[in-house]
Amino acid sequence: MQSLSEFLEEHPDLRFVFTGGKGGVGKTVSAAVLAYHFARQGKRTLLASLNPVHSLSSLFGQDLSGGQVRPVRGVDGLFAIEVNTEDAVQRYRESVSARIREFLRYADIPVDARPFIDIAMTNPAFEESAMFDKMTDMMLMQSGEYDRIVFDTAAVANAVRLIGLSKIYGLWLGRLIESRKEALSLRVQLSFRKDKVLEEVQRDPMMADLIAMSQRFDRVKGLLVDPAITAFFFVTLPLSLPISVVKRFIEMVRAYDIPVGGVLVNEVITHESLGETPDEYLRNKFAEQGAYLQTIQNDLGPLVRAYLPLYPREVVGLEAVERVAEDMFRPSQDLAAELPA
User: Fold this and answer.
1) CB within 8 A of 197, min separation 6: which ones?
2) pTM here?
């Protein structure tokens, strides 16, 4: 097993880190601890929550809401933002609406643009597209301000769809550009005043917009698939469903060529936490997790980067984050041996 510390030492140029997993497994805490560690290492770090329901404010005990980047008190070099989902969707809606209206106007199609806009807005992946657009903005525009950007994603299904758009988006843009080229070429061929039409074609705002979008996408895709600078970490519990989810979505992420950084196993019950006289429930859970830890070792062993214990209290506040960071980045990770006798 390669520890998280060893993995990061082998990836000194890592710039973009994503955390994902089934809901309730500890993605936000893991993202916060990673960001805290980077900041403590002297890296100017941005922690961005892409969750529809944010919890960074509660975790750090300060108001981080409002969609604005704010410094995290008590940690030099650490900044956080809870991305306003409604604001991101509204801005994306305005952008898409403007593009549709511009297309219809330039194509000289005398129809009401609203039905076309409504169809675009009701696309099942519209919200994911909006968040992907926001994520790409942060990767391209804010990466110059920060050494590391850590993204706390939504539940893993949404996260994979979000990142998976990087591949689908490129195919869609490529087809749009080719279609636009064909339409413009046909317009020139059918015109009587070819010189004038050709001049208009060369100034085609839609083609310029599509090419700009394509170039922007290519830049982001280059970042997302580069294992030297990007890593996706999955968080799981020693339970059947979270393990199954992680195994399934690791395959999906790899299908999109997104580098998998590893797996973090959270809430492992240790002998220490049992004590001398454990209650029956905790003793049963300890026995139960043994089989699940063995499954993790068998199926995900090479990817496991850290085992985190089940804490007696909720991880809230900077002191608790620091405690988790100590456990996550311990040189020796031996919690896999915490199996019932």
Assistant:
1) 187, 188, 191
2) 0.80
